[in-house]
Amino acid sequence: MVLDNDRYVLSGGIDPLELVEQFGCPLYVYDSAIIKRQYKRMSDAMNVKRLRLNYACKALSNINILKLFRSMGAGLDTVSVQEVSLGIRAGFDPQDIIFTPNCVSLEEIAEAVEYGVKINIDNTSILEQFGQAFPDVPVCIRINPHIMAGANVKTSVGHIDSKFGISFHQMPLVHRIVEATGLKVEGVHMHTGSDILDPEVFLSGAEILLNIAREFPDLDYVDFGSGFKVAYKIGDVETNIEELGARISERFNRFCTEYGRDLMLMFEPGKFMVSEAGYFFAQVNVIKQTTSTVFAGIDSGLNHFIRPMFYNAYHKMTNVSRPKGKARFYTVVGYICETDTFGINRQMTELQEGDIICMHNAGAYCFSMASNYNSRYRPAEVMVHEGKAYLIRERENMEDLMRRQVDAGIFEPTSTEA
Ligand SMILES: *Cc1c(COP(=O)(O)O)cnc(C)c1O
């Protein structure tokens, strides 16, 4: 979103205030041009013979987004059999989908096998059971390299206390299971979390994974997961994808020479692909000055947008209704009956009740984490593509809230009471 002649516009010159007018508020808007730019940036950064970027669709799982990724040649990273099913519905070839679950049942993995997708296993217990049930289905093994990505234990998933992956110290057990069951290991995988700031840390994890890869003769791919960070505010460090790409490609190509075959290099970015493409628009309901604070209360809350409250995430905000004006400070809060603070002491042009605020970086883990808490409707979603706006999800209504509820009739007044 940029300022153009004193008003904000999205790509293709689309006016976000018109979208809010047309589709209602609050509203999620995704710009396909930004997703394409990010996909191209990451593809171009890798210089290897065989590359596959599997979009981690839990970040934003609208089927139109999935189809956009398919049209660009991406694969799909999925964490539930429902996401697998979404991917199939979006037209992905099953072999372009990888199922990377954590703590799911063998039954759910068996369903994914039915779909014919790639299977990634992250614990030795399921590996052993899987090997006995499906000795002919090739698998990928998720390794925990015990590295800390950033300082946030909620988003870092490759450290020693994390529930994800098989510790690289357990490789003797993995080999014993593979040997006993006759499993074919076609891939090795790691995913360290969302805060890779330093290519050095990533490369040291990669080194551990390549050491393990060397022990498996039948590999087709090595999957380095994700952890690519984007900037949420001025001064944030983002992953230098060009530098990282050059270094990992060089290292990977050397590995392939040594291994004797061109393996496929895989990544599974979520946030990097869609975060910046998303905008969340909400209306200011109330400006409320208390003894200590000036609150701006908006028509949304942690039900629609939980990252600030759940991860302490910073999302930049703009007063879209007033591109020009005096700058003031506000604590922006939601309408949910919980403390749902979007941001403290945010500087924006002076807000008036009725103004539309934009939260930036609303593409990844925003709509996909939305709920109906407080019996609120989840918002509509719109995709902006080549100068046109498309509704890609309707706003919910009362019917949606009642769907699947069964009024069992236990407490109806009886006729004898009348
Ligand atoms: C969530 C997830 C990703 C995507 O992580 P981002 O930080 O959004 O890029 C990749 N791989 C797996 C296995 C995941 O669970």
Helices, by number, come to 12
The overall number of domains is 2
Low-confidence stretches: none
Annotation, overall tally of beta strands: 20
CATH architecture of the largest domain: Alpha-Beta Barrel
Modified residues (N6-(pyridoxal phosphate)lysine): 58
Protein name: Diaminopimelate decarboxylase
Family: Belongs to the Orn/Lys/Arg decarboxylase class-II family. LysA subfamily.
GO molecular function: diaminopimelate decarboxylase activity; pyridoxal phosphate binding
Detailed description of the structure:
With 418 residues, this protein is α/β, with parallel strands linked by helices. It folds into two domains: 2-29 and 277-402, Lyase, Ornithine Decarboxylase, Chain A, domain 1 (Beta Barrel), CATH 2.40.37.10; 46-272, Alanine racemase (TIM Barrel, Alpha-Beta Barrel). Helices cover 28% and strands 24% of the residues. The chain has twelve helices and 20 strands. Strands 3, 13, 14, 15, 16, 17, 18, 19 and 20 form a nine-stranded mixed β-sheet that branches. Helix 2 (32-45) packs across helix 9 (241-259), helix 6 (124-133) packs parallel to helix 7 and helix 8 (199-213) packs parallel to helix 9 (241-259). The longest helix has 19 residues, at 241-259. The protein starts with a strand and ends in a 16-residue tail after the last helix. The site of pyridoxal-5'-phosphate has 18 residues, from helix 10.
